[in-house]
Amino acid sequence: MPIATPEVYAEMLDKAKQNRFAYPAINVSSSQTLNAAIRGFAEAGSDGIIQVSTGGAEYLSGPTIKNMVSGAVALAAYAHEVAKNYPVNIALHTDHCPKDKLDGFVRPLLEISAERVKRGENPLFQSHMWDGSAVPLTENLEIAKELLAKTAAAKIVLEIEVGVVGGEEDGVANEINEKLYTTVEDGLATVEALGTGENGRYLTALTFGNVHGVYKPGAVKLRPEILAEIQEQVGAKLGKDRPFDLVFHGGSGSTLEEIRAAVDNGVIKMNVDTDTQYAFTRPAAAHMFTNYDGVLKVDGEVGNKKAYDPRAWGKAAEEGMAKRVGEACENLRSTGTSLNA
User: Fold this and answer.
1) Which of 86, 125, 170, 263 is deepest in the core (most CB within 10 A)?
2) Domain parsing of the chain, residue ranges
3) Per the annotation, does 131 bind a ligand?
4) How far is CA 277 from the centre of its chain?
5) 218 among the known binding-site residues?
6) DSSP per position, 303-334
7) Is 100 considered catalytic here?
8) What mean pLDDT is reported for the chain?
């Protein structure tokens, strides 16, 4: 299928919320990881979201170039072409963008999509994230309001973060403390500033103890009941059931029970990065160890071209990552839910 149109993306999000499942949002940093993610969604019969961070976009432009916009545009162009060959819908998203990178990442990409829409085309990306977790809530929402007007005009969904995710990702680091828990007051301030969809659609990452990084299952102490409390209390004031379209960040190390509880409380998108990075790299490492004398020219020998051909270990890496994407679909209940099913 072609990359999801704005209308298809909206239908995807609505279906997830109505049927209480969530889409894995898979971070990619290369054509190989992109292919692996799409394959994983297709094999699971799930539509899905593929996203690129500022660091991933820099890498995609060329490690010595480090142009986030070029890297993101290149990824999107590649995705628009290869996604046509798969039977599921794929939405493209840009991940965490802090204040100091807005002018070098999200805003230029928004301008590109706005020009495309003016020409009667679809936007390049279907959603963009503004990460205002490092600034005061008032400033966070002021910037979000400005960006929401632009995303709405370009037929794009905005993602915001209200609260703080602990740990570190792409140079954005936060301590693990009480700030990891969003409050009802934060939720009320959000709808007061941004509305409930009439000013443009947005996704909200409310934090409930989330931490980026590598953790063993059970090591991250999540409180998904916070999501229920905010949805219920804000919803009661608005006369609307589950008013927020929620995003789950920092899910590595979460238990299946915690993940399912978050989904039941309105999470429709869950970011997956650390686990899929490992799932991609582990088979590549296994190939190197088991084909040691083939991938290296040991003791003056010539090695084995079939062993060191990047496609040899690349296929194994992609298969490993695709399986982990399928597992994420199963955990989030999106398996078999494609709009095309």
Assistant:
1) 125
2) 6-283+322-332
3) yes
4) 13
5) no
6) --HHHHSHHHHHHHHHHHHHHHHHHHHHHTT-
7) no
8) 92
